Amino acid sequence: MNWITNYVRPKINSMLGRRDMPENLWIKDPESGEMVFHKDLESNQFVIPASGHHMKVSGKERLRFFFDGGKFELLDNPKAPVDPLKFRDEKRYIDRLKDAKAKTGMEDAILNALGTIDGLPILATVQDFAFMGGSLGMAAGEAIIRGFETAVERKRPMVLFAASGGARMQEGILSLMQLARTTVAVDRLKEAGLPYVVVLTNPTTGGVTASYAMLGDVHIAEPGALIGFAGPRVIEQTIREKLPEGFQRSEYLMEHGMVDMVVSRLDLRETISRLLKILTKASATEATDTVSPTATPTEIQLGA
What we know:
Blueprint: H1 3-16, E1 26-28, E2 35-37, H2 38-43, H3 59-66, E3 73-74, H4 93-104, E4 110-117, E5 120-127, H5 138-154, E6 158-164, H6 172-191, E7 196-205, E8 218-221, E9 227-228, H7 232-239, H8 250-255, E10 261-262, H9 268-279, H10 284-290, H11 297-302
Parallel strand pairs: 5-6, 6-7, 7-8, 7-9, 8-10
Antiparallel strand pairs: 1-2, 3-4, 4-5
Helix pairs in contact: 5-6, 9-10
């Protein structure tokens, strides 16, 4: 025990009325090293103003930024078996789940919410990377399916924000089953004639890109997001070749036709609103005023 640090200094600070400064008042830009005041960053949706670097954002904050007036109704996630394989590595899986729940305040990595964007009722599903890397397990799979079922039931377009490191290894083959189950849920939404827009955020990898994250009617990626099945390091070790600059990043994937457009988080609301109005044939006059009938996804992004 350090007597000066733990006793003398707090005593002096209390006598002089000093308060400790929070450690997270300033956030460092990973690209430029610039320090940004956290309130400025929050007001800019956690996009660094100078460099445009997109920081990770929690699921609830993303929903608040996305919906009209920041208002939305969260749906309850269905119950799913907990630790079905009684898995243990360095730590018991059930203890990892408890830690993740305490850290995030969430039951699992998925949030489903009802709300409106520019007055259009939609359902949004958000995958939160803070909960065990946004990994896809039985609980997350059930929640995603609940989102699709609710969208079909209420006849609402669906927007899904993907962020994941892949399937949850602690659930083995039971997590891999969710790839097929969520794919069926996507098909049911499309059979109902409802639009499905996917927003790929940093990172979206593993089994998620082998199922619902790559089955949208339109795929939008945030700038600089890592998107792919296997990571660049694994691919380089497998093919024993150096990968191109920017490989598996949003901009590279758009150039090669894997995503339709790259859109800043600051412009997502407007872009998705315009797309959904076109896809649902809602407010047709308003949509044709801003986007030509023959516009490609890139032209829509540029406001052509």
